[in-house]
Amino acid sequence: MLRLAIIGTNWITERFVQAALEVNEFELTAVYSRDTGRAKAFAAPFNPQAIPFTDLETMAKSDAFDAVYIASPNSLHYEQSVLMLENGKHVICEKPVASNITQAEHMYQVAEQHNVVLFEAFKTEYLPNFQLIKDHLPQLGKLHKVSIHYCQYSSRYQRYLDGENPNTFNPAFSNGSIMDIGFYCVSSAVALFGEPESIKASAHLLESGVDAHGSAILAYPDVEVIICHSKVSESILPTEIQGEEGVMLIPHISECDHVVVKLRGEEAVTYQVPQVDNTMAYEAQFFADQIKQGKLCQKAKARALGVSRVITEIRKQTGVVFPADK
Hints:
The protein is of the alpha/beta class. The protein has ten helices and 14 strands. This is Gfo/Idh/MocA family oxidoreductase.
């Protein structure tokens, strides 16, 4: 059983711990929070004996855990991951793995230097129904056009409009639409088609300096992938993949519950396989498998770095600058 620590006591951390325990590969043995009481309260339902930490340096040097799930603000991913990796801990870091490609490349270098696993927690790629996309793409014939939509009105946007400065729309935390909602669009594209040959991006920036919404065209030799992302508006449009023989529709690609294939002149067919309710279980299992095998997955590393390169370029083109870039 792998001993798991967590950094960040929020809803997504709770969901991941639940998933990690469900796959029967982990036990929670350490929790970091700036408040000891909060750390103990978080651990109580999972393991009341888990050790609470309020200092990351002390935590990193302890022998209380083998692996750590990092779900802190984006701007802290790099510093916290490197600290843990340098102390021999395996790291699963919430998406995006870093603020920019320079940080991401260094993180993977540190992981490999210390013979530990670094894994970006992008769950979509490991869902059983995401595999169905890959399985049925050949039915579409030669591909030409792809549109990936993910637009979701942020519950924190009204706070921003009211004059507050929530993390979601604050460049100091390496945040904004492309780093959050847009990440799923870019990462799904790279997972399916690899890195694009060229990128053309646009975005609407808030006064805070982050993007509220935007679009990008990712160009491949024969395929054009258009991504549309927003944190200030809603969309019910599915992701669409067009080929010469037909079209595939994927509602809400981040959760990827099912896919629909409509070949030319034929009735639409829905493909779906069962998925567990807590879909973070699949990434938790994949993380555990890498640790047990004693090496990080090079394919997952390549996808994470490819996504980081694409998003770094998109931010460069749209003028979104973080303190980490300086």
